[in-house]
Every structure is written in C-alpha cells, then in structure tokens.
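Quick one: structure tokens for this chain, please?
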Amino acid sequence: MFLKKIYNFFQSFSIRLRLSLIFVLIFGATTVFFNMFLFQMMIDTLQQDFDDALFNYCVDVSDGIEIGIKGDLSFPPLRLDHGKILPFPLGTALIQVRHSSGAVLARVGNFGEFNPPYKKDFERIWKGEEATYRTIEHIRNIPSAEADSYRLISFPLDNAAKPQLMLQIAVPMTLMETQIQKRLTLLQLGIPFVLFIATLGGMFLSARALNPVNNIIKIAKEIKVTELSKRVPVPNANDEIKQLSLTLNEMLDRIQQAFQSQERFVADASHQLLTPLTIMRGEMELLQKTEKRDVDQFIKSALQEVDNLSSIVQEMLLLARVDAGIGALNLEDLDFDELVFEALARCEKLAKSKDIKLKVTINNETGEEHKRIRGDNDLLTNLIVNIVENAIKYSPNQEVVSVTVNHGNENTELLVEDNGPGIPEEQLPFIFERFSRGSNMETRVKGFGLGLAIAQKIAILHNAKLSAQNHSGTGAKFGFEIKNI
C-alpha cells in the first residue's frame, strides 16, 4: 500500500520531471556505488602502503635487538633513519618485546595502561604468517595518544619453528586518517554537487527532448472541426516522436475523411428524405385546391412516398447499427447455405416481377461436409439480399442472375453475377459509398444508394471481404468471402 502511494505520487508529476528524476536516480546510484567502490579501494591501497612501511620499520628495529644465549635481550636506543619517509611519526611509536607466556621483556615509549593483545598473534605466527596486523581504535589507555587509532604489528624475533619472542610496534595512523578524511569530505561535497548539475542537465535535456511533443500538443489543441486539414509537425529525427506524429496525422486523415463522409451522408440523406416529403406536400396542396380530385389516387401516391420514407429510415437505422461496431453484433455459428436460401426467398418477389431466374450453384471443394461460419444472422442475410437485389435491379427482364457458393477449407465464397450494363469505370471505386449510384441508371432503377454501403459495412464488421468488378463482356460480379470456423 505504501509503495502504491509512492507510485501514484510519482505518476502525478509531469513526464519531464519524471524523466529527470529517473535519470538522476540512475546516475546518482551509479555514481555513489562507483565512488564507494573507489573509496574502498583507495583505503585498501593506503592501508597496504602503511603496513608495508610499518613492516620495514619493524624489520629495522628487530635488526638492532640482540638475543643472548640465556635469552637476555640487548635493546639499544633506537636511531631514527632520516633518509626514510614513513607515514607515521617515529618518536611516538610504542615498541615492546613479549614472550609467548605474556611477559613483557622490554618496552620503549609511554604505554601507560595500554596492553596490546598477543595470544592470537602468536597463534597466527605459529601457523606460518610472517607478521600480523591489527587496528586498535578509540585509544584511551595511551597517554597523549597521537591519533584516534593505532596500527599494531606483531613480528617474531627468534627463528625457532615455534617462535617464543615477538616484537610488537604500535604507531599512530594520523596521516592515513587525515588522507581518508580529506577524500571523504571531497566525496561528501562533490557527489551532491555532481547530482545537482546532473539534475539541471536532465531537466534541460528532457525539455529539449519533449519540445516536439509540446509542439504536437499545441497544434493538436488548435485543430478544430472547421480546420481538419491541419496536421501536426513531423520532426526530422527517425525516432518514436516521429512515429507518434505520423500516427496522429494518419488518425487526423481518417477523422477528416469520416467528417467529410458524414457531411456528404447528411446532405444526401436530406435530399433523399426531402424528395418524398415534397411530393406529398404538392399532392396535398393540389388536393386542397381541386375539390373533384380522386382521393384514392392521392392516397395511393402518398402511401408510396411513405413507403419510400420508411425504406430510407430502415436502411439508415440499419446503417447506424452497423456503424455502432462489433458490440452491436449478435454472433452465432451459422450455416452459410441456409443464409443464402433465406436471402433468395426474400428476393423471389422482385425477381418474378422482372421475370428473372435465380440460378444457384453450391460447390464443396473439400469433399467433406462444409464448415460453418460465425456471424450475425440478420446482418449477413441483409448483405446477401442487398447484393442479389442489386443484381436483379440492374439486370434486363427475362435474364439470369447466377448465385454461386464455394466452400473451401478456410473460407466460404459467394459470387453474384448478372447480365446488366455493368458498373461505369468512373463509379467503380465509389460503388460502396453511401448514396452512390450510377447517374445513367438513376431514373430507371428504384433505390436510394444505401444497400451496397450497408453490405460493405457488414462485411468489414465480420472481417470479411466484399468486392465488385465488371465482366469482360456485360454485367457485374460481386464477391463475398468470409472465414470458416
């Protein structure tokens, strides 16, 4: 819960600030850990140099100690070698010789109550170590201690397999402590300063990187319904922002086309709806002026126009349902042949009125029981009815309209062919648009130009393909292809 609150708080920041914080966090963590690693290596190196100098000093001291036959020691006054530079002051070194029993045989320097440990050092030397080192911190028992910590070396004096005498020297680590403290202070001041510079740099770079996005936002806000031709700028760099700009422009293209299509649709629908209403108004005005007008003829004409209005409204409602998308579909497993026969039954009356024969052919390429499809029964039936009725309307009287169903392994195909005049080449690209009809056929063929537009929408909703083309001779051919389940 706590982490979620932190995450939500972080998400409330702007992208620029979030990018800067992430950059500083990664850079800061890397810098801190890397400097900690270098700092530890530096301490180890200083410690090794300090121990090497202390070892050399210990060897020099041990060379001046003479051990008699009876174990007595000759411990002459120490001479300072001014030719050497050591990381500790020689005058403050504490030196003593100790027996394995713990007895202190000789001492140089003011030890006070300081009693260096020795038992584990003897054990390590007996195991073969050349010398042992340890750091003694927070010295309190040494009078006038020169530093907070001393470095203690224990070195064997006799050459026995198990040495019994050990030289111990404790020296202050003043110089090493000073060097470490200076480097630590430099890191404590330097790292925050570097992170501060990195933060400013991150803010600057993120602002530069997001400038194209801000320009896109600015232009997008300025695009209104009346200015859909505007497009967001596309940067030269081949990056994600360029892809975003191109994607937004493609979306704006689709929105502009949709608005233009909607405007054309409203204009055409208004014209189609206005025509029967104008006719009905004229009939009613004429009836009002002419007392001897045949009322039955007026009613017949008015009913015909009402039927036209009802057909337009039904087709527009169906088109609105199709425009609602896949959420408006009632999907189920269907037998495509049954859909075809149901649609042909609805087209039979129109075919008989023109004495047109409907020829049905069903081909099963698989040789087995044909597969079913998945879709909306009413919409698919409407699609088949629309393309079959279209073929009947544009076919001359006493002709044949061929309806062929091809069952494949993966797809089912429907072909509807007529022997009419075909589709004008200039109209072919727009045949599936709303209210699109061939100008030379408008006066001879009854319709409103919505059927094929509805059929194409239904095909798209079912991830199917609806196409139209002309025969090499006369007539048109419509093809509908849908996947099997």
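The radius of gyration is 50 Å.
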